[in-house]
Amino acid sequence: MHSREDFRYEHCEETACWLQGRVRTPPTIAIICGSGLGLLADTLSNPQAFPYSEIPNFPTSTVPGHAGELVFGMLRGTSCVCMKGRFHVYEGYPLWKVTLPIRVFKLMGVKVLVVTNAAGSLCESYKTGDLMIIKDHINMPGLASLSPLTGPNDDRFGPRFPSLLDTYDNNLRSTALDIAHRLGHSELIHEGVYCMVGGPNFESVAEAKFLRILGADAVGMSTAPEAVVAKHCGMRVFGLSLITNCVVQVYEVEDFVDHNTVLEVSKWRSQILQDLITELVATIKHQEEDRQDME
Ligand SMILES: O=P(O)(O)O[C@@H]1C[C@H](O)[C@@H](CO)O1
Ligand SMILES: Nc1nc2[nH]cnc2c(=O)[nH]1
After folding, report:
1. First and final CA of the chain: distance in angstroms?
2. Can you tell me the mean pLDDT for 246-270?
3. For a disulfide at 218, which of 42, 119, 207, 254, Cβ 3.0-4.6 Å?
4. Using CB atoms within 10 A of its CB, is residue 291 exposed (0-12), middle (13-18) or buried (19+)?
5. Annotated catalytic residue: which of 13, 14, 49, 90?
6. Active site residue: 11, 16, 35, 230, which one?
């Protein structure tokens, strides 16, 4: 177990080398499968799976619904790595460890991070089962100095003071919106602001009202640290929230959420999430090829 002080570029390098020595095709897209997207990894062709417990320096998944393995393989002709299960701060992991896989992927050559999550809606017009393309985030722990970038900066990953403008890539957002419309999901799809809180408890009514006033459309317990680290090291990021519940913002309502509800809605919407991300990956492949031609 490393402390923050002994966390080094070399640890990520060690993990990347270990994986590179075993993986047939290095990935260009990494997909963090939040609740509801785990089955996407089962659709990869020519798959290679590595349980987190076998990968040097990797934490392990402790949350029901998060399987805990990396799966490498091809999706619509693109070499991908899927994280079947992610790490959360509420599991007791420090933020640098929660986000360690992103830096490992960077060292393996990943250009684009696709990150999904389950979230509660704060926006009156969103319904359970809707999808929200993340256009920006409010990183509550980050505002309180709990950032994955806290501590000595290693310039080989990125700058000391990174800008977060356009973290959620404009082009990927409009592409995903077009795909959602094309697949017939115009009624489900939104674009909004995701707010990350530490969890593991769901929000009190006063907290929910507070977050809505701040400008958040949905709230969850992940994603922002991963997006910050990906942006810091120069990846393009696409984020998608599955709205698993509407967060109660009035008193004297019996309608409380629990993790089983989150898992049930995730299962219900699993196919739609898979279809959308698969189509997006196919389009990203062409975009990345065009970018390379221009370089
Ligand atoms: O990994 P995600 O953000 O999809 O996990 C969801 C959100 C919370 O961690 C937890 C709440 O049920 O599941
Ligand atoms: N914080 C938070 N995380 C969630 N994940 C899924 N639903 C919710 C929610 O209502 N609040």
Report:
1. 41
2. 90
3. 119
4. exposed
5. 90
6. 35
Residue 128: Cβ within 10 Å count = 16
Give 168's Cβ-side CA count (13 Å radius).
Answer: 24
Pocket test for ligand 2, best of 262, 263, 264, 268 (most atoms within 8 A of CB): 262
Query: What's 228's domain CATH number?
Result: 3.40.50.1580
Residue 35 annotated as part of some ligand binding site = yes
Task: Quote the pLDDT of residue 292.
Answer: 74
Indicate whether 14 belongs to any domain: no
Q: Domain range spanning residue 142?
A: 24-294
Its sign, for the CA torsion 283, 284, 285, 291, is positive
Q: Tell me the ipTM for this assembly.
A: 0.97
Name the more confident of 67 and 133: 133
Q: Could you give the percent of the chain with pLDDT greater than 70?
A: 97
Q: Please check whether residue 17 lies inside any domain of the structure.
A: no
